[in-house]
Amino acid sequence: MIMRVGMVSIWLLSVILFLPAILPGQKESQQPKFDVQVNLVSLDVEVLDRDGGHVWGLTRSDFAVEENGRPMEISNFAISMDRPVSLAAVLDTSALSVEQLVICKAFLRTISHDLERSDEICLYSFDERDAYLEQDFTSKMSSVWGALDNIGVPSRQKGGVLKELFGRIPPTGLAIDLGLKKLESARNGKKALILISNRFRGMGPATVEHIQRSGCLLLTLAFPHKASIWAELGGDAISTNQYMRESGGRQFSAVSPDIEKVCREIIYSMKNYYSIGYLTEVRSGDKNPRKIRVRLPKYRYTVNSRRTYIPTVEAK
Q1: How are beta strands 308-309 and 290-295 bridged, if at all?
Q2: Which CATH class is domain 85-267?
Q3: pTM of the shown model
Q4: What is the CA angle 164-167-171, rounded to 5?
């Protein structure tokens, strides 16, 4: 009897001693696990002086980068010169006059002519009904010129305040989305979209988010259109300035006596810039946009760079 009690006691004692080794492991296995990934955020940064000229000669120490207000350490720094670009040109014909269309075609012919063989361009157009792929990505600029010849507008098309306020809203957001989607399969690392219009209607918050996610540079070539001001006062689209700020892009004027000079500025802006990178941690499930700010603390220059980073965690 005594022997039996002793064996039971030994068994109980061994269980008690073994429990602490089991319980922590069980508790740890119940804790949720998060995948943490370190992502490199790459920024193409354009620096301009007060006259709009590019500023070169800056170093890594001249720049400061913040993410959600928190200083980030710059891990990569380089100067990119004449980098090959994939360009999606999106032409809004919904309110262009015949004369304005002729000017737009002259701009696009000049841009395509001045691009290098390592560059490529595709062309979309859109009116009040739909958006159309006129030319897929190509380095053969004669193909672009042929596509331009097929684009037209009604011979008596006129704009104005009434049409701007009460006419059909063009599918600008759709055309931009198509251009961004096409850029996903483009061969060059530098990707840009130029939107050519005289009113910039039909865009909203979803378009802003799509531009943020794409990381593409957005440029605009604009005609002055007083009727657009009335439409914006009526609560229409988000300002095109917001789209360009988000991507680090710029606006160029289509009303210029020197089309070749403007086209050279557009191409130079796309292909030459400071390349800056920093590392940031991303947890699984974290998809909240992060605000980016690039500054030059010691200088009063204009800095153009993308302003938002949306985290992604790659599947393992």
Answers
A1: antiparallel
A2: alpha beta
A3: 0.82
A4: 90
